[in-house]
Design a protein that fits this description.
Length: about 70
């Protein structure tokens, strides 16, 4: 079974736990400051399923395909 259409959507979220784990983590790794890594991590795309309560913007449809 395949879907007859698919849509790619995008929205902004606010997730403090994720930020602390992914970004603030680099401030101190076992006593070694690795702050220079933060600039590279911020350019890395993040694709994941999130809890709808974390969405802080309107959801925008980026692209849709009729399969």
């Amino acid at each position: 079974m395949f879907p007859n259409s698919i849509a790619f959507k995008c929205a902004m979220i606010h997730d403090e736990h994720f930020y602390d784990h992914k970004i603030e983590y680099w401030n101190d790794i076992y006593g070694i400051p690795m702050k220079s890594m933060k600039k590279w991590i911020s350019h890395e795309p993040i694709i994941r399923i999130v809890d709808p309560t974390l969405i802080v913007s309107r959801v925008a449809k980026i692209m849709a395909f009729n399969l």
